[in-house]
Predict the structure.
Amino acid sequence: MKHAVFCFFIFCSSCLYAQGSKHDTAAVLKLLDSAKAYLDSDYDKAQQFAEAAKQQSKKIKYGRGQALAYKMLASVYYNKGEIPQAEEYTLIALEKLRVFGTLSEVSGATNLLGLIYMSQGKYYQAESYFHQLWQMSSSLKDTASMINALHNLGVVNHYKGEFDKTAKFYDQSLRLAERAKDEKRINANLRNLGMLYGSQREHEKEKFYIRKAMHGFKKANDRLSIAYCWQGLGTAHFNMLQFDSSLIAHGNALTIFEDLGKKDGVSQQLCNIADIYVQKEQYGNAKEFYNKSVVLLKQSNEKFGLILAYTGLANTHYAEEHPKIARQYYDSALSTAKEINAAWQMADVYYFLADFEAYNKNYKAAYEALTHYSKGKDTLLSAEKTKLVHELEAQYENEKKQKEIRDKQTEILYLKKTNQMYVWLWALSGFVALLIVLLLFNWIKHIRAKSKRAIEQEQAKKKAVELELEYKKKELTQLALHISNQNEFLESFKNNLKEATDEQQKKSLERELESKLVLDKQREDFEMNINLIHEDFFRKLQEKFPSLTENEKKLCAMLRLNLSSKEIASIQNISAKSVEMNRYRLRQKLQLNSEENLNVFLSSI
């Protein structure tokens, strides 16, 4: 679920580069002020005033007025959810503002362009513009824009899944807002901190920060921000399987968004409420809310939301055993995902589609869907694993260079000490020469033995590094073997499907495919990898908590990987509620109090 992103627009009343009279340019600025007044309440009126400002500016050849009018129109289109038009007008505004506008106005357009790219899922482009906003606002010493830049950098890194960077930017933005006593931006950062904890499955902290932010927004009577807080609370309750509480929270958010005329917020809440009804197996209600959401999403051309709504409708009709309708919605979700090249969403839809086709005994279609799913996931996982290998290699090379530097420093120090000793020896009298020789011999022998031990220790450290790298290679090898085996199976299944002639062979292939769909969840491979990768972790668990069963140890390992209850349930082929009960029993055995985080505790072992 998306986070709210706050965009603060800056307008100045100076009339630079105006060709018309002061009276004419003042009329343009007045039109822009009227458009700004309607920006969050009546999009049509805001657009009318901005268009009038644009036409008047062109008539009197007022460059700055045209730039600001384009920027205002871009803001209207962005709020209406018409993103391509918003992007086009913002780029025009930015080009003109760089000629006719102030640096403050350029920074405002830069921020808007970052928000537009973020809404399209173009996170790296958005992050680049937010960094530019930070640089410009810092040079202007514009505290409000600086807070906004840090806040938006936190949001875009949240979407990218880089939670450490997210926390850093939110913290910097919050501290700056507190120093400036900017209550609105303080509350915005508190709410997004709550969302960050939610991404890390710390839902009690998530609810605490969101409620704290909501209290501040209520004092300021900021209804739009209150709606986003209700949305955040609804998400937290949903992830904690508290569906009735989630329904109430999303219902409150929906009411406010409808009152404010925020179509994107309304469509999002309709989808969220439909998701809840699916969990409650109230499919009629779920379809009603999904369909309402689709209508609004089509109006605003919001593709990511459409993918989720279409997939939700497909799964709902599948659950009701309406295969033809379900297939149509799966196709709609796929075509929309392909249109915007949403790789993860495409893979997820293909996975649902493979299960759907196998259930309806359309084995060729199931095979094709499974092939697309496998290729999509393998491509994404391969990219992630390649990045991990490069990071490990870089780390190893860095450690090796540091060791070489330490060895050279040790050698230089040793030579200095040895040289000083020889000078002292030659100064001794002949009377003690023999004794000195004997002492020197013993001393050199001792130094050699010490050096030998030091070399052995360094070799042991080097061996440890090599073993660590070998361990990582084993992990990657396991993944490679899985991918290879899966591809071999798909190729074999394809050939067997072509050669199948009688009903008995087709039934045999049916059982084989159903078995593969279960195996595709990687239960067996996952069990093997868990035992391989967590040998040392299991040994420490056994020492500290000898009463743990094998299943409880495996649960500990999966929690240590930050898997969700739903993911663990899928791997173990049990219900999510059973996983939650197992977690509760595990906390009791580990003697954790209610304030201690189970995942953090296991990661510390």
Observations:
- The radius of gyration is 32 Å.
- The CA atoms of residues 448 and 454 lie 10 Å apart.
- The longest helix spans residues 433-499.
- Confidence is low (pLDDT under 50) at residues 1-19, 380-399.
